[in-house]
Amino acid sequence: MEYVLLLAIVVVFLVFKDRPIMVLEFKDGELIKSKGQVPTGFQKSCQEIAHKEPFSGRIKVYKTRFATKFDFSKTIPNKVKQRIKNVFPHNTPTSKRGKRA
């Protein structure tokens, strides 16, 4: 009985664990921490945006099945959020998209 309960806890932990593909953390317009495989062009663009309009906060990028989702901290202004979304390199796989069986 205890094994079933322990297994259920482990499964719940694995399912609901926060797993972004990349994380960028800024403080006063400077990139202080990056985690994951961040494309160099995207990282440079984010640093330029932060240099022009200094902000503090965290950006998390999640990969879903068909799209990329951004999670910004509340301290990042909406104007900066949109600029960061615009410079993100969206790579769409074309191998199976639009084909029918």
Automatic annotation (TrEMBL):
InterPro entries referenced in this protein's UniProt entry, alphabetically: DUF3634
Protein name: DUF3634 domain-containing protein
